[in-house]
Amino acid sequence: MSKRKVVLVTGSTSGIGLGIAKEFALNGYDIGLNGLGDAAVVEAIKRDIEVNFGAQVFYSDADMAKPNEIERFVKGANDALGAIDVLINNAGVQHVSPVEHFPTDKWDLILAVNLSSAFHMSRLLIPSMRSHNFGRILNIASAHGLVASVNKSAYVAAKHGLIGFTKAVALEVADSGVTCNAICPGWVETPLVSSQVDALSVEKSISKEDVIRDVILARQPTQKFVQIDQIAALALFLASDKASSITGSSYSIDGGWTAH
Prior knowledge:
β2, α2 (about 40-55) and β3 form a beta-alpha-beta unit. Strands 3-2-1-4-5-6-7 form a seven-stranded parallel β-sheet, with helices on both faces. The model has no long low-confidence stretch (mean pLDDT about 95). It has helices at about 15-25, 40-55, 65-80, 105-130, 155-170, 190-205, 210-215, 230-240, and strands at about 5-10, 30-35, 55-60, 85-90, 135-140, 180-185, 250-255. The protein folds into two domains: about 5-185 and about 225-250, Rossmann fold (3-Layer(aba) Sandwich), CATH 3.40.50.720; about 190-225, no CATH class. It is built from eight helices and seven strands. It has about 260 residues and is of the alpha/beta class.
C-alpha cells in the first residue's frame, strides 16, 4: 500500500483549521494537528479523526509565536508521519484597537502568529518539498489581506503581508513542483469571530443578532457567513495534482465582500 500523503495544519484544534484537517483526513491524508486547548478536548479531537477517517494523527501544542517551538512541531511531525506534502498556515490571533492605543505586545503577537509563523513553517518544509518535486503551501489569509477595516491595523498588516509572502514564495519554488497560494475568507462563524461579536455587542450596546446582521454581515452581499467546509473544499482542490498550474494566487471566498 502506498504511503498516505501528509498535511500539517497550524491552528487546527478548532474553527477553520480543524475543518480543513478533517476534510483532508476524509480524503486520505495523515494529519499534523497544532493548537492550544484543554488536553482532554484535544485528545478527543485527535481520536475522532483517527477513528472516523482512518488517519494517523500527530499533535503538537507548539506556540506559533515562537520559532523554536515551530521547529519542534515540524521535527515531531516529520518523525511521526514522514515527509510533509502539504502545509496549511492557518494559525491566527486578533486584537481590535485604534492605532494610537494598540498595545505593542498585541501588535508583536499578531505579526508573529499570523505572518512570521508562515515564514518559519515554509522555510523549514520547502527543502524537503523540493527534494520530492512536490509540495503545496496554502496560506489562510483573509478578506483583510485585500481590504482594510478600522481598528485592525495589526491583523490587516499581517494578512496583507501574508499575501505578499505567498507571491514571493510561489516565484521562488515555481520550478520545483511546489506551489504556494492564499485563501482569503470573509466572515466565517468561528470562535474568533464569535468573540468579536460578543465584544461589539457590549461596545455598541446592541444584541448579538443585530451585530451579526448590521455590522458583521453588512459587508458580505450574500448576507451569509462563509462556511468552514467551503474553505476546506477549496484548500483540498488547491492541494491536488489538478491545481499544479495554480500558484501565487489569492482566492476570495467572502460572499462578495471584496467585489465592492
